[in-house]
Design goal:
With 232 residues, the chain is an alpha/beta fold. The protein has a single domain, classed as Alpha/Beta hydrolase fold, catalytic domain (Rossmann fold, 3-Layer(aba) Sandwich), CATH 3.40.50. Helices cover 34% and strands 22% of the residues. β3, α1 and β4 form a beta-alpha-beta unit. α2 crosses α3. It starts with a strand and ends in a 12-residue tail after the last helix. The C terminus is likely disordered.
């Protein structure tokens, strides 16, 4: 799990990278929770996501947003963090020019940033949003969102509203072209204490199944173009 330093918009960004098993391996970028509330790339939920993708055959990158750990800069209300994520995705793609599928994932605040980047980068074809704070942030930018994705939350979450997340998942799932799975993990609080294994299994099962679906579609429609959305 080599440590890497990325050249970010405000200076260096501290990161960890796991190469894929082959040149055509899919890639995944994972984003951590709120920098002002202790969020780092070493958060247990983020690391669980990272390992789930690694074990599913992905090249994976996680990093610290500006001002966190050894990353330079300071918190920028989500605007700067979005540019940090875009920089990290650029680096990940440069390392994996033959990657078949690009995924993005995030936990809490990180899922909000991840989904914004999904809408700006057409090469991102799937997402994992863990406990997206739909009661705290505006997710109305997800329209349309013709991408595959998994949304999870715990039924004991006292930070994120289940009603708000359920409405978000329903709204996304009803859009043309969207393929969204919404999973509530029994007994899990916002930080998935004692339920990290359940989260990992949920993510791996979804990711492997979706990768198989992507592969099947490419075999039957080899000339199908990826979705095209504006980058800004």
């Amino acid at each position: 799990m080599p440590e890497v330093i990325l050249n970010g918009p405000e200076g260096r960004l501290e990161a960890r990278y796991h190469p894929g098993p082959g040149k055509g391996a899919p890639v995944a970028l994972l984003l951590h929770p709120h920098p002002l509330y202790g969020g780092t790339m070493n958060n247990k939920v983020v690391y669980t996501l990272y390992q789930a993708f690694v074990e599913s055959g992905f090249a994976c990158l996680r990093f610290n947003f500006r001002g966190v750990g050894r990353s330079q800069g300071s918190y920028s209300d989500g605007i700067g963090e979005l540019t940090d994520a875009a920089t990290a995705l650029d680096w990940l793609q440069q390392q994996n020019p033959n990657a078949g599928i690009c995924w993005i994932g995030g936990f809490s605040f990180g899922s909000w940033i991840a989904l914004q980047l999904l809408m700006r980068r057409p090469e991102l074809e799937a997402f994992v949003a863990v406990s997206p704070p739909a009661n705290l942030y505006d997710f109305s930018f997800l329209s349309p969102c013709p991408a595959a994705g998994l949304i999870t939350m715990g039924d004991k979450d006292d930070v994120v509203s289940e009603e708000a997340v359920s409405k978000l998942a329903t709204r996304l799932g009803s859009q043309a072209g969207a393929r969204v799975q919404y999973t509530i993990i029994p007994g899990a609080d916002h930080y998935y204490r004692n339920q990290l294994d359940d989260l990992a299994e949920t993510v791996k099962t979804y990711v492997v199944g979706q990768q198989e679906e992507f592969a099947a579609k490419r075999r039957t429609r080899p000339d199908k173009k990826r979705r095209q959305l504006p980058r800004d």
